[in-house]
Design brief:
Elements lengths: L1 H33 L20 H4 L11 H24 L1 H4 L3 H22 L7 H29 L1 H22 L6 H21 L2
Helix pairs in contact: 1-3, 1-8, 3-5, 5-6, 6-7, 7-8
Length: 211
C-alpha cells in the first residue's frame, strides 16, 4: 500500500510539472500577442520580436516602446509564477526515476526547489520596476538548474541513457547562458540563447515526465 501511494504521488508530481510547463508555453505565446512593442535595441519595434525580445520583456509593466503593458505583464508573470510553483512537484517526483542514491535524491530535490523558487521570484519581480530582484531570480533559477542537469546527466547516462543525453544538452545550453551573464555579454545573441534554453528546458521536463 505504501509503495502504491508513493508511486501515485510521484505520478501526480510529474503531471503537475507537465501541466506547468505546457501552460507556460501557451500563455507566454499569448502574452507575446499583447506585448505593446519595443526591444532593448529598438524602442520603435512593433509588437513582440521573437528573437530580439527577452521573455522578461513580456512581464514589464511598461514596454520598451513606452506604452503600458498591463495585459501581457499579467498573463506572463502569472504563467511564469505558476510554472515555477509546479516545478516543486516536478523536482520532488523526478529524482527517484533517475537516481538511486538517497543522498543524491535529497540533494537533487533541494537544488531543484531553489531553482523553482528563483523562477517564481522572476515572475513576481517585473524587470522594469524590480530589476534587482528580477536578476537575483534569474541567477537563483539558472545556476541550480545547471547543477540539476549535470546531476541528471551523470545518473541518467548510467541508468537511462536517453535521459542522460538530453540532460547533457541542457547542461551545455544553461552553462553557455550562465557564461554569457558572467561575461556581461549583451546583444541579440542573448535573447536568442534564452529562447533556446527555456524551450529546451520545457522539452526536458516533458520528456523526463514521460516515464
Amino acid at each position: 500500500m505504501a509503495e502504491t501511494q508513493i508511486k501515485e504521488k510521484l505520478l501526480h508530481g510529474g503531471l503537475i510539472g507537465t501541466i506547468g510547463a505546457i501552460q507556460f508555453v501557451i500563455f507566454s505565446a499569448l502574452a507575446m500577442v499583447f506585448y505593446t512593442g519595443g526591444t532593448a535595441w529598438n524602442h520603435n519595434a512593433v509588437g513582440y520580436t521573437f528573437w530580439l525580445n527577452m521573455f522578461s520583456d513580456l512581464g514589464r509593466t511598461v514596454s520598451y516602446s513606452g506604452e503600458i503593458n498591463t495585459v501581457s505583464s499579467i498573463i506572463f508573470n502569472f504563467a511564469l509564477t505558476l510554472f515555477g510553483a509546479s516545478l516543486f512537484a516536478f523536482y520532488f517526483a523526478l529524482p527517484t526515476t533517475i537516481h538511486r542514491n538517497r543522498s543524491l535524491i535529497a540533494t537533487f530535490r533541494i537544488i531543484g526547489f531553489v531553482s523553482a523558487a528563483g523562477m517564481i521570484l522572476i515572475g513576481v519581480s517585473p524587470d522594469d520596476i524590480l530589476s534587482e530582484f528580477h536578476m537575483i531570480g534569474v541567477w537563483v533559477w539558472a545556476i541550480p538548474l545547471f547543477i540539476v542537469s549535470v546531476l541528471t546527466a551523470y545518473s541518467g547516462l548510467r541508468v537511462k541513457k536517453r535521459y542522460g543525453l538530453l540532460s547533457v544538452g541542457l547542461a551545455l545550453l544553461v552553462g553557455v547562458h550562465i557564461g554569457q551573464g558572467l561575461a556581461d555579454m549583451w546583444g541579440p545573441i542573448i535573447p536568442i540563447t534564452q529562447k533556446i534554453v527555456v524551450y529546451y528546458n520545457v522539452i526536458w521536463i516533458l520528456y523526463l515526465n514521460h516515464r
